[in-house]
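Continuing from yesterday's entry. The apo prediction looked reasonable, so today I'm repeating it with zinc ion included to see how the binding region is handled. Same sequence as before; SMILES copied from the compound registry.
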Amino acid sequence: MLELLKKTGALLEGHFLLSSGKHSSRYVQCARLFEDPRVGDVVGKLLADKLRKYEVDIVVGPAMGGVILAYVVARELGVHAMFAERENGKMSLRRGFQILPDQKVAVVEDVVTTGRSVKEVMELVKEMGAHVVCVGSVVDRSAGRVNFATPYEYLVQLDLPVYEPHECPLCAEALPIVKPGSRYLEKNT
Ligand SMILES: [Zn+2]
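Holo prediction written out below.
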């Protein structure tokens, strides 16, 4: 998985200026994994293999990071895929998507950092009387800190060091800094 992240440009090594103003030696942009659908399909299959034992009825992902992932995982599992999105700041199921009471749901997200979006989707599923039986992600960058109170499966754990500019070792080495082109980089999911 690590090789796949590097090969697709989803994981870059260097000296990066994050949108928070902090610096990092690594940069992850999971959307790149799905740029080549053949790679995206492989990722979907790998995560589906880990989630199969939970026998879910539906795979739900928060937009944007969970949209394609939910689709490829659900296709592998032979179940339905949906995505949740924010409406006036609240995570909601729009577009006619419906989860029925007692259905078993997997919540998937590309990168889990704080787990905030996943937890909001879990709440949404509970409000509908259904059950979140597992959470899945491609990358866990929470360093084991996140607790979903349900089984959590991921494909790779990544430690992405983040430095205050004045204590950045890469600045100390005078390495040129790169500002990645997207705010997506530092989203707290
Ligand atoms: Zn720096």
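Comparison notes:
- The beta strands are 11-17, 23-28, 58-62, 80-87, 90-92, 104-112, 131-140, 152-157, 162-163.
- Residues 37-51 form the longest helix (15 residues).
Will overlay with the apo model tomorrow.
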